[in-house]
Amino acid sequence: MIRAAILGATGAVGQTFVRLLSRHPLFEVVSVVASERSAGKPYREAARWLQAETLDPIIGDLVVQDVHASPDCEVVFSGLDASVAGDVEADWARRGYAVVSNARNWRMDPTVPLLVPEINPDHVALIDRQDWGSDGFIVTNPNCSTIGLVMALRPLHDAFGVEAVHVVTMQALSGAGYPGVASLDALGNVVPHIGGEEDKMATETLKILGVLEDDGVRDADLVVSAQCNRVPVVDGHFEAVSVRLKTPTTPEQAAEAMRSWRSPLEDLTFTTDLPAPLVVTDDPAAPQPRTHVNAGDGMTATVGRVQACPAMASDGRGVKFVVLSHNTVRGAAGCAILNAQLLHAQGRVQERVEA
Ligand code: NAP
Fold first, then answer.
1. Of 10, 113, 200, 347, which is the most buried if we count CB atoms within 10 A?
2. 327 lines ligand 1 (CB under 6 A)
């Protein structure tokens, strides 16, 4: 087993880490960390448990530690609030921990991999450019809305070349953490502003689809324009995407490229079976958050409504579709756990050998 700590364990993403790791065959949670408000309390008292599954009793009994703790573990998952994640994650990397983060703070650092494991696993090599004065390092996963987008774009970029993307998001309430958006703002309403989200989608996408070169990642040569909205859905970020490709492409060819795309992780050996990263549906009324958000236990992004988009290009290079992905699983904790599994498969994080 690989021993793991969770930073920000009491939050929305932290609780998803707890739920997913409590039944994971490769990881054992030995430490839960949160703010001074929670430190010293049993986890079951500190966290207002909001997951649909019952809290694992062993983790429920763990006493929450503060960010100065030094647990005996190989990997540290972070769901820390961005106001503290930058300094705290750097401190843990300096102290020799492998930090696998959801927070935005280190994502765009040129030495830090911004990973969606199936999309750009080669970017892990950026770790070799980090120097924390220890064996520690930081890897990050993207913003929850960027993840669904790049999963759909990767096959199109590989097959036809993506030139421009316009995306309109409809993002779930759980993406704002707990308690998140006030009920009177959320119910029966759409809020057309999510701070920093549109910029993150534009910049993170270019790094993830970028090419790893000797001196770092060269951004992908495409432009992304995003409009991000909060909608009264509990889980699942839904995105309407229009793409201009480099070559004329029919909707059938675009759908087939996404259907037949093969994840590079299929060439590696993993401890667990991996869920399909991408599914394309022909159902004209799908995907929907209520029925499709938990596809692949929340790890599968579902694409539908693949059509021509004459507004993006009048010469047959425009394609539009919708994509749905689970924001706290594929878009956060699940992606980070798969990142750690990738680090293990590549030999960068080792299982503990008991004496
Ligand atoms: P959240 O529910 O507000 O949880 C924040 C966590 O950070 C809590 O465990 C909190 O502990 C801890 N924390 C806050 N201030 C702290 C401090 N001064 N020292 C130590 N710990 C502190 O937020 P969230 O939605 O889970 O998001 C967590 C991170 O993941 C954020 O960086 C967010 O941008 C990112 N993210 C979220 C999503 C999503 O869908 N929600 C998706 C992708 C990425 P206490 O309970 O003790 O206050």
1. 113
2. yes
